[in-house]
Specification:
- The complex is a heterodimer of chains A (about 800) and B (about 350).
- Chain A has about 800 residues and is of the alpha+beta class.
- Chain A has 20 helices and 40 strands.
- In chain A, helix 6 runs antiparallel to helix 9 (about 385-400) and helix 19 (about 735-745) crosses helix 20.
- The longest helix of chain A has 19 residues, at about 785-800.
- The N and C termini of chain A lie far apart (about 90 Å).
- Chain B has about 350 residues and is an alpha+beta fold.
- Chain B has 2 domains: about 1-90; about 110-340, BirA Bifunctional Protein, domain 2 (2-Layer Sandwich).
- Chain B has helices at about 1-20, 20-35, 40-45, 50-90, 110-125, 135-140, 170-180, 220-235, 290-295, 310-320, 325-330, 335, and strands spanning about 125-130, 135, 165, 185-195, 205-220, 245-250, 255-260, 280-290, 305-310.
- In chain B, the strands form 2 sheets. Chain B has a 7-stranded mixed sheet, sandwiched between helices. In chain B, strands 2-3 form a two-stranded antiparallel ribbon.
- In chain B, helix 2 packs antiparallel against helix 4 (about 50-90).
- Classes of the chains: A alpha+beta (about 800), B alpha+beta (about 350).
- The interface between A and B is large, with 84 and 84 residues.
Chain lengths: ~800, ~350
């Protein structure tokens, strides 16, 4: 909301500098986006008058103007503008002046642009003639007539006078951020009320009573509200003998500074009142109101209606339409119709000041894709009490400008008027919420500043806010009013009294621990989007029936690439590996812990299932299937999960068929890992061998055990025996180990694989596998016989079951 | 015999001076003191002497023996030192060669920031609670007093899964869940992922993280809110930062506020980080709206509370000087490695 300070001062006397004003407004709840001062970057620009125009001798598109700039010698200025004429009064930037810009076709420069004299195609030019945009006005607020040319000033200014003084540009404009609960502040009067409350000043309401009125409005127009749900009130007033012309500069300036473009006096006045009160106003040419009858009703589905901007719009049955006896003439609260627009020859107008349902206007505006100053105000909810006052104010301004003759009276259809409401507010309650100790009279004083009526009854204040304050309905709403006017910065700073013990959920603790362990293993944590492209699952070559294909879909995604919730982390991980590889990062170890989502098989559940998953991956020198496997085993061990099984898996699409394993804990699958299949790696642009693992972290957490228990250190020595076995190539190390541990009994303390050898001295199709066995008893020193008995049993079993041959070590 | 002893001592002395290796020293020891040495012979032959003579000679012989042992010991340790030195010289390394590093991994800066925030609040007795990323419209909006037509509910702002479920737009639904399931005192923070329908650019991401918190208990005041968040800001940024609370509007709190901290980069004089204002907006907060407490059937006359919420990316960006939010989700290892 742009608030020109000059306009604000029409209603309230404030005399503080802008930074202080802004600071105090911010601290009372009116946040300031920016404060802009028009004259900051304007220097030495004066009013001039073109006395002679000649063609440039060497350039068809340039004109040489002789400009009278007051008491000094006339100056010669070359211009390329086409809208200048002899006698035109214009802003002149002579040598040594400065203007804010932006200069034609160039970006805005910080601090403005310094003007120097020079030659244009050989002809001396003492400076330049200025456009409104060069003087700092946004294109959208500049009148169509001189938007593309020099600013032709219409009034009789003293030649040579400084432009800032002549046009009154010195005052700042403050841009307030208005929160959705305060639609009353979308008006200059609303901000004047706030300003008054902050600076403890009374403000003046504008004049609304006309001095001279004729005839009676009933002779001109009637109003019928068919849908009183969507239109609470409709006020119509009539003005005849209208003279449509340009508005005086004071009015134009206020609109321009507030961000609106002047059009003509009638339209400008309706806009002025909209900005002043926050009440949108519309004016119809009565010639086009068939039957002189206004009917407020919903449209028929499929009706076509052309709005003021010339666009034909298809209406729906729930859109509110202002009709006459025959047709639609305005899309209620959004935009008027082209068919009843004010024209140069308009003589009698109907002024509409109505109250429409906010949700309906919002929906309509959204559906047809048109948001206007009017709809933006209606959709936030307006006070129906404003309609008549605002219509009266329009009439008053028309009278003031001599733009027409006001017809007496108003048609005011207001079936169920809203009245001011009173709320009981407990002083003690306010104090207890804010942690302060204010008296009833102190609070009453604060309420009074906001034009609220207050009467005290013991500890209770009966507070009646002005009807524009539709946000104040319950006691808590008044707590905020006290807090912000008293000042948040004045509230004490204390620490809550209660004591409590902080805790983390088990899941949170385990995830934190897992992250610590992974970082300890040299892996970097990554975080990827929860929403992904459904293509990821196909990219890792999982089939369409897989659990991973049961996507939770987003109804309104930003794009295909994040249209479903991830069901698996691996595609994201591979994306990250690919990105890093393409950026020439030679080695990556990474992990992610995050949610995956599955469409419920049981449809009755309200929310889809969410599961924690974990991905671990690596590529680069030294990395292999076994480094990643090692990370997985170490991670699980730190979570209290020991001796997970790794079962070869040859048909998981993402991985090399000979280098992939399901990770098992007994019968429970914890995850899957492998070397990324070359086709998949290629798909992701990973030009090297990469290894990846995905764990169902929910399941891991279920089996995690962080209980720690001490076992006494061994008292008796251990006996080591190394064995090397010659076995068939396809016998898994795990199978050998299982037999060893199975036969080893209680004295076999540990079995460690230390070598697998193929090659010289080992026949094709065979491999040599070497284990280190350690024997120990907890209650005695083992004898050679003790060990030999068990050791032989093991060797025999290996020989019998696996055909394993003991090699000489 | 005496003269023989003197000669032995002299000989040992001369030989030891010449010796230049451990084996030579050992050889000298054997030769001079060993079983077959002259000295041993002399001692052995003493039995034939008269007692007086024996005593005198015995003393001399033992003295010579002790002398030689002492010389051997000195020579030995001297030699040992020389050899060590030579060995050390050989073994010298270039200490400027790089170390063999077992690199630790780095946590993601978002995780680090969440952990730091959590640590501060846990030190004040807040528990960490989490909830699902896909939420009901009720928990995300209705329970939090969001007006039925609040723009944030629009398809243009929020990702929907069905008409009644969505990707949560904040972590406040966790508060709603807690209010529904627990009795005061309630004191939790809820970190997690949130989603809003923003097209990604340097300052927007459709997925981001928040930490929200709520305290509901008897006698909780807005002054407590200020004290709690002021403490938080000092812990997370710097002990000397100042805080400023400005009135604002959120549907779920009233009174509502935004908290700024004095710029920890320039100290409040104005710089690029604070855009010249000296203050940086950090979080939104306020006293929990009675409508929200009532959803959890909490007696609003007995209990009051405050709530707050902050964007983790924003705080991480401010703390670490990251200028593009998209970097967090690109997962370039050179980026993540900087947060070790």
């Amino acid at each position: 909301m742009l608030v020109p300070i000059e306009w604000l001062k029409d209603y309230i006397d404030i005399d503080v500098d802008i930074p202080e004003y802004c600071e105090k407004m911010i601290m009372s709840g009116s946040n300031v986006e920016a404060a802009h001062c028009f004259d900051e970057e304007i220097e030495n620009i004066v009013v001039g008058k073109i006395v002679k125009i000649e063609k440039h001798p060497d350039a068809d598109k340039l004109l040489v103007c002789t400009v009278n700039v007051g008491d000094v010698e006339p100056v010669q200025i070359v211009t390329g503008a086409t809208n200048v004429f002899e006698g035109a009064v214009i802003p002149v930037a002579a040598h040594g002046s400065r203007l804010p810009g932006p200069m034609h076709g160039q970006p805005k420069q910080e601090g403005g642009v310094k003007i120097k004299k020079g030659k244009l195609r050989g002809v001396e030019s003492a400076g330049m003639l200025c456009s409104a945009s060069e003087l700092g006005f946004a294109d959208k607020v500049i009148q169509a007539a001189h938007r593309d040319g020099i600013w032709i000033l219409n009034e009789n200014h003293t030649l040579g006078q400084d432009i800032v003084e002549a046009l009154g540009l010195a005052h700042s404009v403050v841009d307030f951020e208005i929160t959705p609960n305060r639609p009353d502040c979308l008006s200059i009067l609303g901000m004047a009320r706030e300003t008054g409350a902050v600076f403890k000043k009374k403000f003046r309401y504008p004049e609304t009573e006309c001095v001279h009125e004729v005839e009676n409005v009933d002779q001109y127009v009637s109003v019928d509200i068919k849908n009183t749900e969507l239109c609470k009130r409709y006020v119509a007033r009539v003005v005849k003998d209208v003279k449509v012309e340009e508005s005086p500069w004071w009015l134009q300036k206020r609109l321009m500074k507030a961000g609106m473009r002047p059009i003509n006096n009638i339209v400008d006045i309706t806009n002025f009142v909209m900005l002043e009160y926050g009440q949108p106003i519309h004016a119809f040419d009565i010639r086009h109101v068939a039957g002189r009858k206004i009917v407020v009703d919903t449209a028929s589905a499929g009706d076509l209606f052309t709005t003021l901007d010339g666009t034909e719009r298809k209406l729906e049955s729930d859109m509110l339409l202002i009709k006459d006896a025959e047709k639609g003439i305005a899309l209620a609260g959004v935009m008027g119709g082209l068919n009843s627009e004010i024209a140069e020859d308009t003589t009698t107008i109907v002024i509409e000041s109505a109250n429409f349902d906010k949700d309906n206007i919002r929906a309509t505006s959204k559906k047809i894709g048109l948001r206007t100053e009017a709809s933006a105000r209606f959709e936030k909810g307006l006070d129906s009490g404003l309609c008549l006052t605002a219509a009266d104010r329009v009439c008053k301004l028309i009278e003031l400008l001599g733009a027409g003759t006001v017809v007496k009276g108003a048609v005011d259809v207001y079936p169920s008027p809203t009245s001011a409401h009173t709320v009981d507010v407990r002083v003690a309650r306010i104090n207890s919420i804010l942690g302060v100790d204010l008296s009833a009279s102190e609070m009453a004083e604060l309420f009074g500043r906001l034009e609220m009526q207050v009467s005290a009854a013991g500890d209770v204040l009966k507070v009646t806010p002005p009807t524009v304050r539709q946000d104040l309905n319950r006691e808590i709403d008044f707590v905020e009013e006290v807090a912000r006017l008293y000042g948040y910065d004045q509230l004490p700073v204390t620490i809550p009294k209660g004591s409590s013990r902080a805790g983390k959920t088990r899941e949170r603790m385990l995830k934190d621990l897992a992250k610590d362990v992974m970082c300890g293993l040299g892996a970097n944590e990554i975080q990827t989007y929860s929403f992904v492209s459904p293509k990821g699952v196909a990219n890792i070559r999982l089939d369409g029936d897989a659990r991973e294909s049961r996507f939770v879909e987003i109804v309104n995604p930003l794009g295909e690439e994040n249209s479903v919730m991830r069901t698996v982390l691996t595609p994201n991980m591979l994306d990250v590996l690919g990105r890093n590889f393409s950026r020439n990062i030679p080695k990556v170890r990474a992990f992610e812990i995050g949610n995956t989502f599955g469409r419920n098989v049981a449809e009755e559940a309200e929310l889809p299932e969410e599961q924690d998953a974990m991905a671990i991956a690596a590529y680069g020198q030294g990395e292999s299937f076994f480094t990643v496997k090692g990370m997985v085993v170490e991670l699980l061990a730190n979570l209290g999960i020991h001796e997970p099984g790794f079962v070869a898996e040859s048909s998981y699409g993402a991985y090399h068929p000979g280098r992939c394993a399901r990770i098992m804990l007994g019968e429970t699958e914890l995850g899957i890992m492998g070397e990324v299949h070359p086709d998949v790696a290629e798909q992701y642009g990973i030009g090297t061998k990469a290894y990846c693992c995905e764990l169902t972290f929910d399941t891991v957490m279920k089996h995690a055990n962080l209980e720690k228990a001490y076992k006494p250190l061994p008292k008796y020595p251990s006996v080591s025996r190394d064995i090397a076995l010659l076995v068939d190539e396809d016998i898994a190390v795990e199978a050998i180990r299982t037999i060893i541990t199975g036969e080893g009994g209680s004295i076999l303390e540990s079995v460690k694989l230390f070598d697998v050898y193929r090659g010289k001295q080992v026949a094709d199709g065979k491999k040599s596998v070497a284990f280190a066995l350690a024997y120990r008893a907890s209650d005695r020193t083992l004898t050679d016989e003790d060990v030999a008995k068990v050791h032989d049993k093991i060797l025999k079993a290996l020989s019998n079951q696996l055909n394993a041959v003991l090699r000489e070590m | 015999m005496q003269s023989q002893l003197t000669k032995i001592l002299q000989e040992a002395k001369e030989q030891l001076i010449k010796a230049s290796s451990m084996p030579e020293i050992e050889e000298i020891r054997v030769k001079m003191l060993g079983k077959k040495s002259q000295l041993t012979e002399i001692l052995r032959s003493m039995g034939t002497l008269a007692p007086e003579e024996r005593k005198e000679l015995g003393q001399s012989a033992n003295h010579v023996r002790a002398e030689i042992e002492k010389m051997l010991e000195e020579k030995f340790s001297g030699m040992k030192g020389t050899l060590r030195e030579a060995k050390f010289k050989l073994e010298r390394v270039d200490v400027t060669e790089p170390g063999v590093q077992e690199a630790l991994g780095a946590k993601h800066p978002i995780t680090i920031t969440i952990n730091e925030i959590s640590k501060v609040f846990m030190s004040m007795g807040y528990s960490v609670a989490e909830g699902p990323e896909i939420e009901t419209v009720f928990n995300n909006f209705d329970a939090l007093n969001a007006p039925a037509n609040h723009p944030s509910r629009d398809y243009s702002d929020t990702f929907y899964v069905t008409e009644s479920t969505l990707l949560r737009t904040h972590t406040s639904p966790v508060q709603a869940r807690t209010l529904l399931s627990e009795e005061p005192p309630i004191k939790i923070i809820s970190p997690g992922r949130c989603f809003r329908r923003d097209t990604p650019d340097a300052t927007h991401s459709p997925m981001f993280h928040q930490v929200e918190g709520i305290l509901v208990d008897e006698g909780v005041t807005m002054a407590d809110l200020k004290g709690t968040l002021d403490y938080f800001a000092k812990q997370i940024f710097a002990p000397n930062v100042k805080t400023k609370f400005r009135p604002h509007y959120f549907p779920f709190t009233e009174p509502s506020a935004e908290m700024d901290v004095s710029c920890f980069k320039c100290g409040g004089t104005g710089c690029r980080v604070c855009k010249g204002s000296g203050w940086i907006e950090i979080l939104g907060c306020g006293m929990v709206h009675p409508n929200v407490l009532q959803v959890g059937d909490i007696d609003v006359e007995k209990y009051t509370g405050f709530a707050f919420g902050m964007g983790v990316e924003r705080i991480a960006m401010l703390k670490y000087g990251v200028d593009d939010i998209r970097l967090f989700y690109e997962n370039d290892m050179r980026f993540i490695n900087q947060f070790k």
